[in-house]
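Shift notes (night). Ran Class II aldolase and adducin N-terminal domain-containing protein while the centrifuge was going.
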Amino acid sequence: MSAIVQHPHTHNDPHWDVRVDLAAVFRWSVKMNWHEAVANHFSAAVNEDGTQFLMNRDQIHFSRVTASNLLLLDANDPQTMELPDAPDPTAWGLHAAIHRNCPHARVALHVHSKYSTVLACLADSSMPAIDQNTAMFHDRVVIDGDFGGLAFEEEGERCSQLFSDPKKIVMIMGNHGVLVIGQTVAEAFNRLYYFERAAETLITAYMTQKPLRVIPDDIAAQVADDLESYPGHAERHMSEIKLLLDRDEPDYAT
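Came back to this:
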């Protein structure tokens, strides 16, 4: 296949449902103030081994992403960056490496959201379990403390190796931001939403300069397991987001 495939604007597109979900989370991220001018990228695999994936175009604001204007890329095509409609080179470096090397990471969402990025800038970027949301990520976070600059191909390759443990679902990218993965768009976005909430709680608690009341590891582990398997929560979250967008910004699904 060619690196970038243009699809007709039709529901006959075999990846249409994934396109709609991915476009929806771009639009919702604007509402959450997680966009970064025309930077940052979300991607979602569409084939069995995860190497073909959808991603936003180069230099387009999240609020203008639609289901039909997402790129379809092949992580194994070395000619991708030579095409006239090539993606952002740092997006290609990071997301292609993830989809090439981490088949369990079918969806990858990268943002510089405020509180997650503050956490990524601390000498200790760990997330102690101090409430239900922070406990949700107990033993599920990998911290990258070796920021190597913009995520061109070499840096993207290095970052992708940090997801070798399938239990890790969040990468705190030191001095950079956060990267969240999942099996579906709904799962990954739900995790991103709750991780930013958790980071906000933790950073706010640090600001009080009072001692933290940390949940014991065994309880935190149980909370994380229970929330990970909570029936239908991520899917319902996604469904509600799309219902609200259907009302207010229906062009996202075109």
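The chain has eight helices and seven strands. Residues 1-8 have pLDDT under 50 and may be disordered.
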